[in-house]
Amino acid sequence: MKFIINDISDNPVNLLRRAGYVFQRKDGHEMSFIRPLAAAGYPRFHMYVKLRGEDLDVSFHLDQKKETYGDDTRHHGEYEESGALKQEADRIKSFLTPASDDSGFSPV
Question: Hey, which bits of 1-108 come out as E strands?
């Protein structure tokens, strides 16, 4: 699932930490964050973000379990824009969107 948060008010690490996400790594201009839903680490929401000016491009999915393909990076993830992902997008939006303006939220 992809969307854009317009005019963020703080750096992405601080904002996403408040939403329950843990910074994982940075690769170039892209940052990776996770929010585990169980003590074992899976399932978890896995998010990639890029800062473009004052806007935050968000791409995320739900990892159901750790990859089981050896060294390959494929895994058991959900990418559909419904169900748990839609609910999480709405939750993230409530944390990252300033309450004083319009929505600040743009689907991609």
Answer: 2-5, 22-27, 30-36, 44-52, 55-65, 76-78, 105-107
Q: What is the largest CA-CA distance in the chain?
A: 48
Bridge pairing between strands 30-36 and 44-52? antiparallel
Token digits of residue 4: 């854009």
Class of the 2-107 domain? Answer: alpha beta
Query: Does residue 53 contact residue 65 with C-beta atoms inside 8 Å?
Result: no
Tell me the C-alpha distance between 17 and 32, whole Å.
12
- Global pTM reads 0.78
Contact residues for 48 (Cβ-Cβ < 8 A; gap 6+)? 30, 31, 32, 33, 58, 59, 60
Evaluate if residue 90 carries a pLDDT over 70.
yes
Could you give the 3-state DSSP secondary structure of residue 85? helix
